[in-house]
Amino acid sequence: MNLLQCDWDAVRFLVFSGNVTDNLIYYSHFSSSIAALIIGVFVFLNERKSLINKVLLSLSLTFAIWVFFDMILWATGDPSQVMFFWAIMAPIELLFYFLAFYLTYIFIKKTDAPFKLKAFFSLFFLPLLFFMHTKYNLAAFDYTNCELGAFEGLLWKYIYIVEAFIVFCIIFFFIKNYKNITREDRIKSLLLVVGVVLLLTLFSLGNLTLVFSLDWKYEQYKLFGMPIFVGFLAYLIVRYKAFNVKLIATQAMMVALVILIGSQFAFIRNNTNKILTAITLAIAVVFGWILVRSVKREVKQREELEIANSEIEKRNEAILERNDKLKKANKEISERKEQLQKMADSLAIANDKLQKLDMAKTEFVSMASHQLRTPPTPIKGYSSMLLEGSYGELNAEQKKAIENISNANNQQIAFVEDLLSVSRIESGSLKFQFEKCHIEEFCQEVIDNLALKAKDKNLYLDYKVPAKPLPEITIDGAKVREVISNLVDNAIKYTLKGGVTLYVELCAKKESGCLKKPHLRITVSDTGIGIPADEIPYLFAKFSRGKDTTRLNTGGTGLGLYVVKMITEANGGKVWIESPGANLGTKFILELPLEPEKETLERNG
Length: 605
What we know:
alpha+beta, Heat Shock Protein 90, disordered N terminus, two-stranded antiparallel sheet
């Protein structure tokens, strides 16, 4: 039949009425595209930033666009429109396959595909750019009996080969990465791959059926792969929360029910049945929404309960862990207590031995001191008598020799007295007699006794008498007088020029180093050799002396300041040294409380 003799209005009518009105076309095209769009949009709206959700939405939109263009091909009878949409559907169909592979890759790898892989698959689109508007895409038309038919070109054979290759790549990619997939994700990955392979395989089989049978109606069956794929996706979402979507089974069931009821419009031709179906669909939507809402509320409460139970379990586990740690810690503490007890017992035994040794040492020092005091006494007496001329006049050399003997003997006596004082203090045998005293009297006595010694060294010795009488203090007067005398005598020894100043005051400075209760402050300052800062902390220790002191006073014992400190503290006071540095003088500060603590009186009384 000649093309010019054909009534095209009749052709368009025949094509429209014979193809589009077919029930299977409505069901295959509309139900498949709606199912794809629902699942794609639903997943995307749940988490828009997720890459895999974007890819699934793109896959759904691509399929829906292809179905829409395929419907146009079924409805149109215009060859120009057929050629146009046929050319557009080629890259869309190939893109649909590539997106299916891309979705599988991201689902299994949990990451985006590398650029090289994307570039490799993009190369398959190049032949389409060059040949999709040529005879290799649409080879010819057939107008037999005024019905339009079209024949595929070689380009479609290329597309079918690429599609088969992509299906093979999906299966190969899954098998290759199966061992690297975690046990939890293996089932999910397998379900997705089976769904994708069924979708693409059915689609390809529809194309091959068309090629070999040359009957366009068989092409409709390839669209039924999408509802199957949607079923796999729904199961993955409901069962495994895939795509980060919390879809409950009730939602999936209601959506499926609505789709099934809506698909009935593809078969209904009676208006009454259409109205009844529409009412049924509306009721299903309303009651389905109510049901889904109530079920979601229940699921939410159940999830909150599960979260609460999970938190409780975690807290219980944490409590159990803490209890275990506490048990271990208690066990370690018990073991350490046993070790410490053993060490304490050993230390107690060692301490008893040390105390016995210390007592023996003190007794020995005391006995030795008493023995050492005996010889110096007659030596001191005979030396004084010789110097006074009781045994005749002495010449200058003899007198000098006797003076040296007397000085050495006095140093020996002072050393023995210091040893006795130390031994008595450490053994607790040194008793203190506390009484009310005027400290000014002691200071004046010390100045009077040491004035001659200072004069012999051409030094001044000043005592600044308080402007107002000072209050009485409770101390052991004799021992405090010895302390003040020791400090003034020490200052004279280590002063080459200038002199020594003694003053006493009722201290109201409230400095950080002061005693915390009302007290008197006695200060002995000199213009002597001074003391370096690094030596000051050691001067109150036993047998400790400064570096420069040995040069000026070779006879020092290193016990004088120790005795001063012990006696001062026994009276409830404190003593310390201040010095700007070498050759800048020294200041000894002694503080005594007006009333010592009751414990001090009981301990030393």
